[in-house]
Each structure stands twice: as C-alpha cells, then as structure tokens.
Amino acid sequence: MLRYIRIGLAGCFVLTCSMPILAEMEYFDSERGRVTVETVASDLEHPWAVAFLPDGKGMLVTERPGRLRVIERDGRLSEPLAGVPDVYARGQGGLLDVRLSPDFRQDRLVYLSYAEAGENGKAGTTVGRGRLTDDLNALEGFTVIFRQQPKLSTGIHFGSRLVFDDEGHLFIALGENNQRPTAQDLDKLQGKLVRIYPDGKVPDDNPFVTTQDARPEIWSYGHRNQQGAAINPWTGELWTHEHGPRGGDEINIPKPGLNYGWPLATYGINYGGQPIPEAKGEKAAGTEPPHHVWKRSPAISGMAFYDAQRFPEWQRNLFIGALVDQSLIRLQLNGDKVTHDERLLKDMGARIRDVRLGPDGFLYLLTDSPSGKLLRVGLSAK
C-alpha cells in the first residue's frame, strides 16, 4: 500500500467543485486497479448514513447519538440541524438512516429512521419525515409515518434501511430486536421488510392486507437484522442483506409474502457457540434460502450497486461495508448471481457502516467510530 499527502478536492462530489482543501490520499491495491481513498469529513460520532443533496449543495449525514448535519462542498461540517426527533441512543440505537424524497426538488422532504423509546422502557424503529429548510439549518414539520410495533428492543437489532422504488413505495428493512421468534410472527413488525407509501399509508396490494391478525405493512418476513438495502438498477428489484448470528450473514431478493427463515433456518450459531434453539438447520420447510450467504460473518452494513460510468472496471458490481471484517466487499455479478468476492481496504482498519454511490461516480463510505469519517473512494490505473 502506498500513502502520501497531497492537495486535493476532498469534500467535493460534483465534477465542477472549485474549493480545494488539504486532503490525505491513500492508495490500496486491488484486483481492478489501485483504490484511492480521500477523507471528505472527520470527527463524526458514529455516523450511520449519508444522502446527497441535489445541485452540489452538500450531503446530509446522520450521527447515531441523534444529530443530523450537512457536510458542505469543501468538507466543512455544519452545526446539528434543528427539528430532528429525540432518539433512543443506547447500544445500537439512535439516529439511523436518511433518505431524500424522490420528489425532493419539489417537496424538500427528508426521511429519517431512528430508534424510539416506548412506555415500557424498550424501543423500536420509527420512520418520519420533515421539510429541509432552504438555509439547510432545520427540518420543519417533522411527522412520524411508521412505528415498529410492539417495542421490544433493549438496545440492539433495529435495522434499518430506507429505500424508495420506482413505483413510489417506501421499503423499511427492520431488525427483530434480538427477539428471535418474533421474526416469524405476522402480528408483529420485528424481523420484517415493510412496504408503505411515503405518507405511511399501506398499499392495497401488499401480501398480508387481507390476512387476519397480520400486519398489513409486511412485505416479507423471517429476517434477522437488516442493515443494507438497495434497488438493483438493472432489474428494478430490491435487494437486502442482514446480519446472521455467529456466521450466516446473507443477501436476499425479497418477494412478497415469503418467509426468509430466521430463526428456523440459519447458517450461523449463537455467539456463545451453541446452536440457535429454534433452528432446524441451514434449511427449513416453507422458507426461502438466501440469495448469497457468508458462513463466516463479515458483519455487513450498507450496500450500493455500481452503475456509473466513471470507473468501468466496477460496472455491475455490488459494494457492501463490513464492520467486523473492516473492509469494503466488492461482489462481482453475472446477472443476479454473485461470482466473486473481493475484500478492499482491509489495511485501512476501519469499520464501514454505510456505502453510497455518489452523483460523481465515486463511492462514499462512512466509518463507524467515535470519530468517524466520510470517505470518497475511487479507482486509478493499475
């Protein structure tokens, strides 16, 4: 690995950016060329998700303790925005995902997922939206559109990624709050992929709308702790991934009404080395096998398909962050099939929480630590 300091354009994700600042450029070897890494912003406290504002206005980034900030074009970090809801900032809980409305240029709506405390002292995942002010200082009129019920978490397995599809639906990928059997219970929202409209209403064609004692929001079930979700740009299908226990991290392409197995089917075991009590094995009748599985868990978080033109060598690849493995996973695809797994940036020694494709064709990563960073990742000639 080569590493040196140079004057660069860190913090600029539009091609016309003209605000150079001192940037540390690092190079890492890979099968497709040298991977370049620049630090865009630092001193973020457990950053969880990033979203790109249009017209070169910067990026929104969430910090798990409950702050939403703007990272400006030159890498400067704003003060926390006003109007963000109170969050349950314990364990894995806090302020989590951020997504812009598909009609953001017209409505300026920003969607947030976060852990919310309940009356019983436990918490669940909640999603709401507010209007970003023109001066980028606040969210106005923040309104809750979805609550995970019942609230069962004591601080872990909240999920939760937000994805809009091309038909105007909002998918919410949820965790099972470490209450394993609830992932199979259709009257609970733990361990589910949820599909609603952007205002929180339930589509009439959801699979369990007419099922007695089932939550109508549910799209699929039997999930553990989903922290990655993205629309495949070549098929329009939603892909999700989830943490297994000790082993068994997996990717799914969830279909309506289907059961993805947890905790009945798993490739993993408990962290203490014992089998999962409810598990029937790696497969179980009536459940769907994972689309792709890691028998040894990298601890995956964040996901982005690469369909930009800037780096042709990465075309039709899927990138996923890894927390325990401390790497950026590059999955080579042939259609939907995963044909190769390469681990990038392992020498960097960073827990990667989020992966997004920027409008400039670079990948943007968030590192999970008390002093986390936003990184801009590209590829140079081999």
Automatic annotation (TrEMBL):
Residue stretches making up the Glucose/Sorbosone dehydrogenase domain: 44-376
Q: Which residues cross the membrane?
A: none
An example of a Pfam family matching this protein is GSDH
* InterPro entries, per database record: 6-blade_b-propeller_TolB-like, Glc/Sorbosone_DH, Quinoprot_gluc/sorb_DH_b-prop
PANTHER family named among the record's database cross-references = ALDOSE SUGAR DEHYDROGENASE YLII, HEDGEHOG-INTERACTING PROTEIN
In Swiss-Prot or TrEMBL terms, this protein is called Oxidoreductase
Q: Which species is this record about?
A: Stutzerimonas stutzeri
